[in-house]
UniProtKB/TrEMBL annotation:
Domain Purple acid phosphatase N-terminal: 77-188
Cofactor: Fe cation
GO molecular function, a single term: acid phosphatase activity
Documented EC number(s): 3.1.3.2
Species per Swiss-Prot/TrEMBL record: Brassica oleracea var. oleracea
UniProt cross-references to Pfam families, sorted A to Z: Metallophos (PF00149), Pur_ac_phosph_N (PF16656)
Listed name of the protein: Purple acid phosphatase
Keyword Transferase attributed: no
Enzyme class: hydrolase
């Protein structure tokens, strides 16, 4: 849905696998009395009847869809994406070079064989600055008879720094010896202050890569967001066997597999489909349950941790599962629901430090996100995140969190103000 400056509200496709809404966060919105505030509540719950003309069943894009094909050759960059650093003056550029392999025997590419270079500047025909970064590959291994292993292309992450606020930059990425991307552009966030905000932020969860996804992302792009938050559950590669066979109900249809398999090429398909958006608009991701992806050696979250850049070090975190950043006058906190959140743990200690630095005179808005909601009417996930709520609710409440965004439930729902279930 969109909250417009004139106070009207537009809802759009109530898609099955997606929760998505836009916020205008500007001084005009703050003082707009035509938009009811939660402070005016509590309101009587309202349920909008499902529009049966909408697609009722999410259908994945097939491997043959042109939008998921590899369009580059050799070691030219693909799947280009941006992520904010902790402040406006820095941004992450990520991309992939080389082809993934899937089979019984795979040979990982050498990350050092391809350089990670971004050339950038404020003029499209004069990219006078250069930044270098690091690269890696990850493996998704299933050492069981008949299952296939995966090794990724080379994943590059470069952080470019020294950027000015609210400024358009042009860039290309790659390795000059093997091919650079075409020139893309992005706009930096405004300086953090009570009077400067990104004009539009999209928040999406549980995207997958279905025909519903394409409709929602198309709608999202048409609304020209300055920033996109993805609150967990990304590619749904874990609804597939390693041979590429999919199912709506993995546990029902694949009950005899020795391990919960995944089909990692779905991640590459997702990155290719999203590139038009993510090469221009920063995407901030936090993990969902579909990113767990257990493999050999009890490794988990390898695709999530490898493919995306996160400003975790910049925000004082030691984990890619939780971090924070500023976007104009908003301080965003991204929490990890699938890592230790106990009061004696590192995440909780980091959150205490992060919130202690939160300065409402610089960033008046405090927005906190994580994947599974603490409060929802969806009974299938009833109290699923109760332990996290018990551990963390008091802390984020004590700092006056303004808005919480979650995913996990594949429907749009918003609640009256709530604390400790009241
Ligand atoms: Fe989920």
């Amino acid at each position: 849905m969109s909250l417009h400056r004139d106070g009207s509200i537009t809802t759009f496709l109530g898609l099955q696998l997606l929760l998505l809404f836009f916020c205008f966060l500007s001084p005009a919105s703050f003082s707009d009395a035509t938009i009811p505030s939660t402070l005016d509540g509590p309101f009587t719950p309202v349920t909008i009847t499902l529009d049966t003309s909408l697609r009722g069943k999410a259908v994945d894009l097939p491997d043959t869809d042109p939008r998921v094909q590899r369009y580059v050759t050799g070691f030219q960059p693909e799947q280009i994406s941006l992520a904010l650093s902790s402040n406006y003056d820095s941004i992450w550029v990520s991309w992939i070079t080389g082809e993934f392999q899937i089979g019984m025997n795979v040979t990982p590419l050498d990350p050092k064989s391809i350089a990670s270079i971004v050339q950038f500047g404020t003029l499209g025909d004069s990219l006078i600055h250069t930044a270098t970064g690091s690269s890696l590959v990850y493996n998704q291994l299933y050492p069981f008879e008949g299952l296939l292993n995966y090794t990724s292309g080379i994943i590059h992450h470069v952080r470019i720094t020294g950027l000015k606020p609210s400024t358009v930059y042009y860039y290309r990425c790659g390795d000059p010896s093997h091919g650079m991307s075409k020139i893309h552009h992005f706009k930096t966030m405004p300086v953090s202050s009570p009077s400067s905000y990104p004009s539009r932020i999209a928040i999406v969860g549980d995207t997958g890569l279905t025909y519903n996804t394409t409709a929602t992302i198309s709608h999202l792009v048409q609304n020209s967001p300055d920033l996109v938050l993805l609150v967990g559950d990304v590619s749904y590669a874990n609804l597939y066997l390693t041979n590429g066979t999919s199912s709506d109900c993995y546990s029902c249809n694949f009950s005899n597999t020795p391990i919960h398999e995944t089909y990692q090429p779905r991640w590459d398909y997702w990155g290719r489909f999203m590139e038009n958006l993510t090469s221009t608009v920063p995407l901030m991701v936090v993990e969902g349950n579909h990113e767990l992806e257990l493999q050999a050696g009890n490794k988990t979250f390898e695709a999530y941790s490898s493919r995306f850049a996160f400003p975790y070090i910049e925000s004082g975190s030691t984990s890619k599962f939780y971090y924070s950043f500023n976007a104009g006058g908003i301080h965003f906190v991204m929490l990890g629901a699938y890592i230790d959140f106990d009061r004696s743990g590192e995440q909780y200690e980091w959150l205490k430090r992060d919130l202690a630095k939160f300065n409402r005179s610089v960033t008046p808005w405090l927005v906190v996100t994580w994947h599974p909601p603490w409060y929802s009417t969806y009974t299938a996930h009833y109290k699923e995140a109760e332990c996290m709520k018990v551990a963390m609710e008091e802390l984020i409440y004590s700092y006056g969190t303004d808005i919480v965004f979650n995913g996990h439930v594949h429907a749009y729902e918003r609640s009256n103000r709530v604390y400790t279930t009241n």
